[in-house]
Amino acid sequence: MENIISCAADGAPVMMGKKNGVLKLLKDDNPQMLLVHCVIHRQNLVSKKVSPVLNETLNAVIKCINTIKANAKCERLFKQFCKDQNADYVRLLLHTDVRWLSNGNCLKRFMELFDILSEFLDDKPYMTLLLTVDGKALVSYLADIFEKLNVLNKELQGTNMTLVNSKAKIFGFISFLELSQENISVQKFEQFYWLNKCEVTDATCLVIVEHLRIMLVDLSDVTMEYQGELSELQNDDSIKALFKIKGTMMWLCEETQAKYPNTSSLARKLLLPFPSSYLVECGFSAVNDLLLKKRNRLDITKRGDLRLKLTKFLPRIKSLCSRHQAQGSH
Hints:
The chain is an all-alpha fold. It contains 18 helices and two strands.
């Protein structure tokens, strides 16, 4: 247990519980363990916080989409209507809370088909709400901000992400939010593609600025646990050259470990931990791919199927084939 230096988990109570949570029990056995709340999960929690006005707008969009998607005949008519209008797309995307990128994707497609939807659903009260000046501006803003949140979400994913890299991505997004607040306050919308095409009233600007402020407060809580500098490193040319080649991964090199054991030990606690549960989710996806309906009794752990699915090693086919004769009868 003492070899486990860190554990990352999402916000599930069974994992994060203060009394009987998994992380609490692990911390009891190893007090030095660094506990990490998945940065992707935290980013998703922040993206769900919207004001009542924005929530009403988002619900109106979802109702418009469900009106078309819930009825097969209505969806066929909408598809034909899009073709007659020479639209780039002929179908809408469903909104699903379980899929974290769903908001951004469905709102973007909604805006791409907004003019067609305004004609197709002109008799629906929730579409009438979105056709007002403020309604169209708010749904345009939602499409823009959720698209940017989707980009951040994807940047936080990956097998080689560290806490240092995650911090850089998140605080870069915080800087963008601060700048957006200032620009929108003075009616500058160049950073928002769809919003820049709309007429925006002062009331809408206040709603948008407030939403940006809410996200900014929550995101700013994501701070690094350790920070430190050594004056010796600033004058070490060999370490500087190693940093230019390997970046922050220089702390994992033997040369750095030998010269600066204390600082390297501290840096490794930030570089080795997983900042998110991305690899676990990849494992779940691999299991779903392997255990199909006709293969649900397959023992993928003992047979090695799951390990082969998740490994980064590539088989050397040519080397394996060279050891065997192509046709045994010759």
